[in-house]
Amino acid sequence: MSSFILDDVLKSLADIQCDDPKKTLKGSGDARKCEYNCAPGCSFKSSICCPSDSFEMHGKCQCNDPSKAPNADNTKCESKCTKAGEKYTNGVCCKSYLTGKNGQCACPTTGQIDDGTKCSACPSGQNYNWITKGCDAPCTKAGTSYKVTRRGKGVCCRSGHTACETVCCPSGTDEVGTSGKCCKPGSTLDAHGNCLEPSHVPRAKRNGPAEIQLENPSTYFGLNGNANNALCPAKTAACPIEDRGDDAYECIDTASDLQSCGGCTSMGQGVDCTLISGAKWMGCVKGQCEIYSCTKGYKLIDGSCRRP
């Protein structure tokens, strides 16, 4: 009789084994049930065990508090900021007196510099460089004003001049690369350093304007922080706004914007179609400048404005 009873017990135990190897029978009596084998303080989400104060997304644990991240074995949510005196602000870990801006740590007030222990304004008379986030010497020569080149160098430009890659160029011209030579926008230099107007390939269009095919056209995303459209909507570039502070940028469709056609001109990319010599009415189509008509004294020939 006892052997029959033992068989019944073993059969009963077999019947209540958990089918899922990830589960273990827990509890006693009628309260017994199969539960996932998660560490203390964790619970099973959709497919993995995660800390109780987290959730699962795409097969990974994500802490409810954005300032925390799961530890290596997914048993606890820990602070992302591990250095003493740091705080989590706008997606980054920064010193206590700084704040997160566009994925980087910066002084909370535009125009201040970080000396390593605090934020402060530039010394009296000096100019704040919004690219290097440092201070530059004042412009002392009459008729000049402080500007920042696309490479981040502080320069003193004369009236009617604009800061380009490394130097100031007269309005309506641009520096050719970093040569220090000012020419018409899109120009190159010959072997003697003379300006060569931008080459073009006219594209015939029936009952429509001629189109200038600029050399090496491409579309840029602008600031590095926008590489995955983290700052601006898809198909737009994050272009810095000159003289507006280290966190100032605008989202531009470089495929159609007249002044940043093909890229952010504030970063030395693309072309400002409005500066094309002799052009009166123009457009930007698919990152290319198109000229529709020319000013007096010029004639539209093969897609560019030329003097007869």
Describe the structure.
Helices cover 5% and strands 35% of the residues. It has 1 helix and 31 strands. The strands form 15 sheets. A 3-stranded antiparallel β-sheet has the order 25-29-28, with no helix packed on it. Strand 17 and strand 18 form a beta hairpin. It starts with a helix and ends with a strand.
Brief overview:
The chain is mostly beta strands.
Describe the SSE topology.
Blueprint: H1 2-15, E1 23-26, E2 33-36, E3 42-44, E4 49-51, E5 54-57, E6 60-63, E7 68-70, E8 77-79, E9 86-89, E10 92-95, E11 99-101, E12 104-106, E13 112-114, E14 119-121, E15 127-129, E16 134-136, E17 144-148, E18 154-158, E19 161-163, E20 168-170, E21 174-175, E22 182-183, E23 188-189, E24 195-196, E25 210-211, E26 237-240, E27 249-252, E28 279-285, E29 288-294, E30 299-301, E31 304-306
Antiparallel strand pairs: 1-2, 3-4, 5-6, 7-8, 9-10, 11-12, 13-14, 15-16, 17-18, 19-20, 21-22, 23-24, 25-29, 26-27, 28-29, 30-31
